[in-house]
Each structure stands twice: as C-alpha cells, then as structure tokens.
Write a structure and sequence with these properties.
Layout: E1 7-8, H1 15-33, H2 35-38, H3 45-70, E2 78-79, H4 84-90, H5 94-113, H6 123-144, H7 152-161, H8 169-195
Parallel strand pairs: 1-2
Helix pairs in contact: 1-3, 3-7, 3-8, 5-6, 7-8
C-alpha cells in the first residue's frame, strides 16, 4: 500500500474544514499584503483592513469550532495536496518548530510575570493571568506531549486554525472538550467494528 492510498485530497475534505483553514490564511494575509495600503493617509483604510481581517478571523473561529465538534478526527487524515498546514507547518523542521515554541513560551511567561512583580493585581490583570496561563499550559502541552494520534481533536484544531488556535485556546476549550469526547467515542466504535 503506497502513501497515496493513505491520503485524501484536500478538496475532498468536508467544506467546513476547507473554509476554516482558508479563512485563517486570509485573516493572516490581509494585514501582511495591505501594509503599504495602511500607510495611505485616508481615514477609512486602516479600520477597513482591521474589519475585513476580523471578519475572516471570525469565520475561521466559528468554522474551527464546528469542525472540532463535528469532525474531531480529521486531524488524523493526511492530505495529499492543497492542505497548507500539512505542506508548510507539519513538514517544517522539528528544530524550527521547537525553537519558535520555546521563544513563544518564554515571551508568554515574561508577559505573565510582569503584572505580578509589583504585588498589586487588578481585575484586568487577573483575567490576563488566567487567560495567558491557560495559553502557556496549552503551548507547553503541544510542545512536549502532543501526538496527533493520541490527541485527534487537538490535531484538528491545529490544522484548521493554522496554529492560531494556540493563542485562542481558552476560547476554543469548550469545542475541544466536546470534540475530544466525540473523537474517543467514534474511534472506539470504529475499533469495535474492526475487531468484530
């Protein structure tokens, strides 16, 4: 059995998976490609760029939540073509990914330390500590323990969100809890059918 037999064309993936990934890519690309346009001294340009970026990010967020709940196992399927995450993120060097993860973790740990170093914590700082702490824990989990075959819902989250699901983890947590439970149940049922 060749590797082509175990893969699926990305265009054959469910539409919501493709919408989620393409929306996040568009949300990242708009600010990058409209940098020169943002320098124009027209008052409505920057708010329009922010609004359009936010619109695509919202579509990506909603579609990612839907995919995690509806297709939590899709992160286990290899894409033969068209899947930007598989092509650029999964195939990038492990050293580069670990280095980026360590830098993000150190930056986040510093950002969590700064509000508490003086001993006075406001309500907003407490919310930041809770949110940032959850993101840091998830980032460390992805760096140290994550395996897509053991954690299919997390693999689905990373694929659909192009990795942007890491800083949004606390907001995606309810979908991840439901998706993880559903993935375990579906995979257990598939295993029973194979053994019987």
């Amino acid at each position: 059995m060749g590797s082509q037999d175990r893969t699926k064309l990305f265009r054959e993936f469910p539409l919501s998976v493709r919408i989620a990934q393409r929306s996040w890519i568009t949300a990242m690309a708009i600010p990058l490609f409209s940098f020169r346009l943002a320098k124009v001294k027209i008052p409505w340009v920057v708010p329009t760029i922010i609004a359009v970026t936010g619109f695509f990010a919202l579509i990506g967020f909603v579609a990612t939540c839907w995919v995690i709940v509806r297709y939590p196992y899709i992160g286990l399927v290899d894409a033969a073509d068209g899947d930007v995450y598989s092509k650029y993120v999964e195939k990038s060097s492990v050293f580069l990914k670990k280095l980026l993860g360590v830098m993000l973790a150190m930056g986040l740990a510093l950002a969590l330390y700064l509000p508490i170093h003086d001993g006075k914590i406001t309500g907003v700082e407490l919310l930041w500590l809770l949110y940032g702490g959850a993101v840091l824990m998830f980032l460390l989990f992805v760096m140290l323990k994550f395996n897509r075959f053991d954690h299919p819902a997390v693999a689905t989250l990373l694929r659909c969100s192009m990795g942007l699901g890491i800083p949004l983890f606390p907001l995606l947590l309810p979908a991840l809890i439901v998706g993880s439970g559903r993935a375990k149940r579906l995979l257990a049922e598939a295993q029973e059918q194979l053994t019987s």
